[in-house]
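Dear Dr. H.,

I hope your travels went smoothly. While you were away I took the liberty of generating a structure for the chain from your last submission, since the lab meeting agenda had it listed for discussion. I wanted you to have the full record in hand beforehand rather than looking at slides cold. The sequence, exactly as received, is reproduced here:
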Amino acid sequence: MLTLLLLLPLFGQGQIGTRTGGSATVVISQVYGGGGNTNAPYKNDFIELHNLSANTISLAGYTVQYASAGGTSWATTPLTGSIAPGGYYLVQEAAGTGAAAALPAPEASGSLSLSGTAGKVALVSSTTALSGACPSGGSLVDFVGFGSTANCYEGAGPTPAPSNTTSVIRKSEGCLDTDNNSTDFSAGVPAPRNSATTAVSCQPTITGLAPTSGPVDTEITISGSNLGGITSVTIGGVTASGLVTTATNVKAIVPSGLAQGSAAVELSDGVTTYPAGDFMVTLAGISTPQLGSSTVCPGGSFSVTFQASGSYAATNSFSVELSDASGVFATTPPVIATLLNNNMTTSQTVTATMPAATPGGLNYKVRVVASNPVVQSLASAALAVSGVAIAPTTAQNLLTNENGATLTATEITPLTGGDSGCTPLPAEDPTRR
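The corresponding predicted structure, in token form, is as follows:
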């Protein structure tokens, strides 16, 4: 569907209206109105078309039509022949008076005199002239309002303004069509293309799917090219939510309620469906990790026990991640223990090592993260990190009284659970101030 906005003067401000038309397989890919003007690179104005589809499209009975930026009357140029898949079709229009290069051989010619800075161009599947400032109807195939003063256009606004030395060119070699003239086009050096120009396919090409397994509510990314026109993603036949589309990737969220097992991922542009591979829906989960100690020293070790459930790939690894002293996990938190290539779903215990430079704190936490599928546990209970070390750790003689008696300080057996070599800060005694 094409959506066009009509701006009507209302005490110097624009009043917006809308109209809908048909979905385009052939689009206007370039408009140039500076032909033969001062410094113009080409003698003639031109309109260029591009076939987005995978089929040859007959243009018999079609016209390209032009109106001024605020005009209501339309002039036409009839088209003949056809346009190949991914192919271009050049329509030569009126010549200016200045000396400039001729256009490449056009597929059609007319006498429309386009403005060099602003106007409206339409591709119409009829020979009947349009009417009105912002026309509508099923015969309207594509529409471009170019330049800042155009009062009708697709989407949020007209294209950037062209000039004698620039045309407005549809991005991605003529493939980008989000029904928004302001973002689908840019101004650039005129580059007229005709049927002899190498075809550029606009069909979506899918090169990757990641991740390929995980529980429901997992976000997946489909990568490729020409994906800007994708309007929906289904997984296991169910429409996915969270759709975010760019020219090179599509993101979506695996729908809740899918059964465990393989589910086909398919993309659609509203006309054609494109398979993107299979996603293995798992019922994976990781229990809240249990800690072998509630206090640990910098550089000390402690045990972490957890239970994984569901299905994991043979290359899956479990990582134990550490929060900051307030219990908040960074975007890329420190990994303090790893079980490599582990797809076991029995109870697992791993020895974690607190980084030696960890500041003291009372609210550190850990969590366990699986790599394939990507699943993470809830955070553990609070873990205190002591910042006071006992030093020296060898026997020392201390002179303690007037009689010359001595006491000997000797290193004791390290405490279990990771308290070796340090002791927690004692609580302050409020009576001793």
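Two observations you may find useful: The longest helix spans residues 171-174. Residues 205-281 form a domain with the Immunoglobulin-like fold (CATH 2.60.40.10).

With kind regards,
E. W.
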